[in-house]
Amino acid sequence: MQYRMPAMNEYARPVLNPPGGAKKVLLHSCCAPCSGEVMEAMLASGIDYTIFFYNPNIHPKREYLLRKDENIRFAEKHNVPFIDADYDTDNWFARARGMELEPERGIRCTMCFDMRFERTALYAHENGFPVITSSLGISRWKNMAQINDCGVRAAAPYEGLTYWEFNWRKGGGGARMIEISKREEFYQQEYCGCAFSLRDTNQHRRDQGRPEIEIGKQYYRLDNKTTGS
Ligand code: SF4
Description:
globular, binds iron/sulfur cluster, 229 residues, alpha/beta
């Protein structure tokens, strides 16, 4: 008999308490796989939140649209408001100038998180959200301290705005992230997002004798097999 993934309300999750008891949160989302668990965990705690999708780092545009459309599909399923922010890639590349050869988790990534959180914080300030947070830290590939530093720095200029440094990996969150991705058959990106991470991941794969990434090919499946789009 095939294993069935638990539905949202079948998980035993702790009740979440955003800073200051806020019930309204702006969630910066990087993609559907990372935000799936964060979204369901906040829904289960009755938190009123809105998704803010601002990721001008994602390259090329086809990959950006695949990631965004998956996130919209899941937001619509749960009736969660979705803010589709700019895809201002020129600004992202301008800020990345001189950092093209930096490794992942280095200063280019700090810039990348800063840029995305600065816009998130501005939107929160202008639209009455007292708390911002992000799905970025749930991935085991990311440095959570680096992400939290960027989030706190982005919120600091705005009085009354707090970056919620919640560890979404904790208490089984990391495992649920994978389970939800399989249950929902999300598009599965194979690199962090920017042109430089695509270049470096492809180089790594070539070094291992593996084929380069095919954008739009890999989807989460219960049986772990991949399928083309
Ligand atoms: S590797 Fe990822 S976090 Fe770092 S700059 Fe590229 S897209 Fe941004």
